[in-house]
Design brief:
2 domains, seven-stranded mixed sheet, single chain, 285 residues, binds S-adenosylmethionine, Rossmann fold, Helicase, Ruva Protein, domain 3, 9 strands, alpha/beta
């Protein structure tokens, strides 16, 4: 009979063999899922024997991962901003890079207890809007997505996090038809150039929604559309924060400036890549 440590080692080796970087952590997470154990238990009980039924469940999950299905789809969740978000193939898996946007917005707000109105365009799983509402106790917001299936997941996340009463989630084409002005507008739009999608890791190109990835020929299509709408969605002196892909901060900054926004700032992610463009709508104009 295999011990916990031996099983983790064997699965990690196979994951390693197909180029999965965090193979040991993922092997532990697969065992945690299969056995309904915590990671602490897996580490503490590394010399205990594992029941055959659990080994068989781990094998089934490992086979999916070896076929490069994302961990977030196998587990059904991903942690973001220390909150647990349900994830399916209908939404983009929340990325650690996007936490840069949450941090940047929170730092830019003078009063986190204000009753702010927040708009998230392309809300997906809800990770941006719901993390902000979690940090801003008196804020409320609206999340828009063109994908009805993504909105189902976002609503489940809003309920699970106890934020459904403060988050309106609705179908829409970016800002079309929205008549309100918001204190904060955030977006992480699709920004991968169309021809690059197939070159991405199979976890992304084969399992994530193209609607969440495809940014058109140069990756900037959605920014052109969004910056054309921001002028009537952000209140005077309100804040806009856009996540951008590698190498896009300059072009997106120019689009925002051309839309009449000022106080431009760029924030880097943990890898030092310019990841978020911030700007304010002037008080006049
Ligand atoms: C890159 S994902 C971001 C999801 C989530 N905000 C996040 O940061 O993980 C972009 C999202 O924009 C949505 N989207 C694409 N085109 C849209 C449109 N025309 N109007 C509204 N949402 C759109 C996609 O369905 C997807 O959920």
């Amino acid at each position: 009979m295999l011990t916990v440590g031996e099983l983790v080692q064997a699965v990690a080796q196979r994951l390693d063999g197909v180029g999965i970087a965090e193979s040991r952590l993922e092997a532990r997470l697969l065992l945690a899922e299969a056995a309904d154990w915590t990671l602490e238990k897996i580490i503490a009980e590394r010399d205990s024997a594992v029941e055959a039924g659990i080994v068989a469940r781990v094998e089934r999950l490992a086979a999916r991962r070896l076929a490069r299905e994302p961990m977030s789809h196998i587990l059904g969740w991903r942690e973001f901003w220390s909150l647990r978000f349900r994830v399916t193939s209908d939404v983009l898996t929340p990325r650690p890079d996007s936490e840069t946007l949450i941090e940047a917005v929170l730092r830019a707000l003078p009063d986190r207890d204000a009753p702010l109105r927040v708009l998230d365009l392309g809300v997906g799983s809800g990770c941006l809007l719901l993390s902000l509402l979690h940090e801003l106790p008196r804020a409320s917001g609206m999340g828009v997505d063109r994908s009805a299936r993504a909105l189902v997941v976002a609503r489940q996340n809003a309920r699970a996090l106890g934020l459904a009463g403060r988050a309106e989630l609705r179908a829409g084409d970016w800002g079309e038809g929205i008549e309100e002005v918001f204190d904060v507008v955030v977006s992480n739009p699709p920004y991968v150039p169309s021809d690059d999608i197939e070159t991405l890791d199979p976890e992304v190109s084969e399992h994530e929604p193209w609607l969440a990835l495809d940014g058109g020929a140069d990756g900037l299509d959605c920014y052109r559309r969004l910056t054309g709408e921001l002028g009537y969605l952000v209140r005077p002196s309100g804040l806009v924060a856009l996540e951008v892909g590698k190498g896009q901060a300059g072009a997106v900054g120019r689009l925002i400036r051309a839309a009449g926004f000022t106080d431009l700032a760029v924030r880097d992610d943990l890898a030092g890549i310019p990841r978020v463009v911030l700007a304010r709508r002037p008080i006049t104009g």
